[in-house]
Every structure is written in C-alpha cells, then in structure tokens.
Amino acid sequence: MFSWHRNAAIRAVEDLIRSGELGEIYYMSFERTNLGPVRTDVSALWDLATHDASIMCDFMSDMPVFVSATGQSYLNPGIEDVVFATFIFDHGAAAHVHASWLNPSKVRQITVVGSKRMAVCDDLDLRQPLRVYDKCVSLPPLSEITGSFLQHKTLVIDSGAIIPVVQSREPLLAEVDDFFECILSGMKPRADGVSGWRVVRMMEAAAESIAHGSARVRVTDGPT
Known about the structure:
alpha+beta
C-alpha cells in the first residue's frame, strides 16, 4: 500500500492541500472498485481500503478520530465484498471510502473538496490524472444577512477547471529509490512503521464498526 506515497498525481494533490490552494478541507471521497479479483482470505476493507486510509492520513497529516462503516457479504459468507466507511478527523473533515470487488467498473478516484477549490485525481487516466476545479460555495457575511429568506442564498462560484501537468513515474520504482536513499542518508522514509500502524488501527476500527451494526468507533490514539 505504501507505493501510493510516491504516486505523482496523489503527491500533487497533497501539495495543493499543503499550499492552501484548496482552502480548508471539507471532505474527501475515495472510490476503489472493480469486478474481481474476489478474495476469500480478507475482505474488501483490508484488501482495498488500506490504500485510501494511508493516503488520507498523508493528506491530513494526521489520523482520523472516529469511523463508522458498513459492509455486505454477497459472494462469501463473513467476507465483505463491498464496504462503505466514513472517517472523521479531529477538525471536522470527513473522508468517505467505497471499496468493492463486486462492481461493473474499475474505478480509482479521489475527490478532495475544499473551501476554495476542489480536486479530482483519477489514477486510471494516464494522460490527465489530475483536475483542479475552481469551484466553491461562498456564504454571505453575517453583516449582510437580514430578514428576507432570499438574502440567505449562497453564492456558487464556478470558474471551470485546470489540468496540471503531472510528471508520472512508476510508484514502486520510486519507492525502491526512496528506500535506498533513506539507508544511505539516514533520513526518515515517507512511509514508516507508524504509518503502517495507523492504517492497521483504522482498519481494525472500521471492522469493529461493521461488526457492531455501523456503530461509531473511536480510532485509538497511538505513537507519534
């Protein structure tokens, strides 16, 4: 799952978030589906959603505090082949994950909605994997709100989209290069043991939520 840390398009989205280009992050949506391959050793949660759990932690520079998830087992009893999970971060941002190997289309798409702009990353689009939409919803200042219902309308801003140039590189090759560079220089890798622990804990909490009828489960704090 850690090869995603070197995916050029995903790194470009992370840069947009870090720079403030998207504004305050409201929510993220991760869709990872396909028709097969169907596994019988682990569920779609552990097989697919782990990638997106790792990515959202990178985007937010933190791990979520709560998760609520639901899953269904249509092909093999007790092994969820479709999962929906919503993670909530401490500052209120939400991240929704749809993972399934029982879907007519292969989808690898991430949507990040901010207060200023929105970004969509499509890993299957090799030519234009990233689009940044100059779209947002503006609320009127409190000083301008009076008694009329019509004056409470929001302002929708739609200035089109731009397609940044993303220099793609094989993520696994970049991961190997980063591994050797860290050995030689002593630097901390982007994906270390703490990153792995975070993902495992998030999946454990999501699985617990599924087992308890989509109950809201706290994602336990851990090492920093």
